[in-house]
Amino acid sequence: MHELSLIQELLDMVKQSAIENGITRVDRVRLVVGESYGALPEALAFAFEVLAEGTVCHGAALDIVDSPLLFKCRECGTEFKPGEYSYRCPDCSASNAEPVGGRELYVDYYEGD
Amino acid sequence: MKVIVGKDLLTANANQAGENRARFNAGRVVAVNLISSPGSGKTTLLEKTAALLGADLKMGVIVGDLYTARDAERVAQAGLTAVQINTEGLCHLTANMVARALAEMPLAELDLLFIENVGNLVCPAAFDLGEHAKVAVLSVAEGIDKPAKYPGVFREAGAAVITKADLLPYTDFDLPACLHDLKEINGRLPVFVTSAKSGRGLKEWCGWLKALAGEVYGC
C-alpha cells in the first residue's frame, strides 16, 4: 500500500513549510483524503505515528477528513453519489458522469508554535 | 499558529508526470499505461500486439515488476524495445521511476510506448505517469467481480481489455454481466474481448491503438 509514501510526502511538505514559518513544534495536521484513493485511515495514522518520530511533527495529532465520491452527469448536470455498483445518473441514467469530488489529497492546514 | 497549506500530496509526482508527458510529446510517442491484477496476461497481450502491429508502429515497453527482468526479456524477444523497472516491493510505478527508465528508452525511434504497471488494481490508478491513456486489463480467469470491486481504475481507463476469452467455455465467467458492470461504471469505455490463443479481438484492440496514435499525433 502507498499510505507510507503519501505520509512521507506530507511530512516533507509540513517540514518545509514549518522552516519557512519559523515553527519548531507541530501539534496538529489536517489531511483531506478523497474516497477515490482508497487510502485506509488506520494505515495513514499508523504511518504518521511511525514516520513523524524525530521530526517537527513528532507527537502531533493527524486529523483525517474523508472527502466522499461525488459525480456530475455530463448530460444533465445532476450531481450525485454513486451507488454500490452503479455510476449512472439517477435522473437521466446516462453513464458518463465526471468525478467532481473524492479525488482530493492535500494538507489543509497544520497548527504549531 | 495555524498555517494553511492546501497543497496536493501528489504534487511531486504530478510535476514529474507533466515532464514525462512533455518528453512523450516532444518525441511524438503515444504512451499507454497498462493496469491489471497480477497474472492477467499483460505481457502476452504485448507479445501478440508486437506481432500484429510491429509493421505499422515502432513500439517500446517499460516493464514494472517488484522483482526479476523476466517480462522485459519476453517482450524484447517479441521485438519490442524493453526497459525493466524493479520496484523492490513497491506496489505501483511512480512518475519518477518512469523518468529514469525513459533515459534508457530511444524515444525518438518509437511511435508507441507501453508502460506495463505493477500487477495491482488499486494503487497504480492514483499515480499519473504522464501517459496519454490508461488501459485496464482483466482476464476471464479472475471472474467478473473485478470492475465492481475496483471501479477506480475502470473509471479512469481509456479502454479495457478482457483477456483469455478462450477460457470462457470452461469457467462461470458471465461475459454479458461483466460488460454490463463495465457500462455501469464507465459508459464511454471501449471494451475488447480478446484471446491470445485464438486471436479473437486482437485486431480490434490494435485498431484502437492505431486510432489513439492518430488522435494524438495524426500519424
TrEMBL record, chain A:
Ni(2+) binds at H2. Signal peptide: none annotated. GO terms for molecular function: nickel cation binding; zinc ion binding. Zn(2+) binds at C73, C76, C89, C92. SUPFAM superfamilies: Rubredoxin-like (SSF57802). GO terms for biological process: protein maturation. Pfam families: HypA. Keywords: Metal-binding, Nickel, Zinc. Involved in the maturation of [NiFe] hydrogenases. Required for nickel insertion into the metal center of the hydrogenase. NCBIfam families: hypA (TIGR00100). Belongs to the HypA/HybF family. This is Hydrogenase maturation factor HypA.
TrEMBL record, chain B:
The keyword Hydrolase applies. GO terms for biological process: protein maturation. It comes from the Bacteria. One of its GO terms (molecular function) is GTP binding. Residues 33-192 form the CobW/HypB/UreG nucleotide-binding domain. InterPro entries: CobW/HypB/UreG_nucleotide-bd, Hyd_mat_HypB, P-loop_NTPase. Gene3D superfamilies: P-loop containing nucleotide triphosphate hydrolases (3.40.50.300). Keywords: GTP-binding, Hydrolase, Metal-binding, Nickel, Nucleotide-binding, Zinc. Belongs to the SIMIBI class G3E GTPase family. HypB/HupM subfamily. This is Hydrogenase nickel incorporation protein HypB. It comes from Desulfoscipio geothermicus DSM 3669.
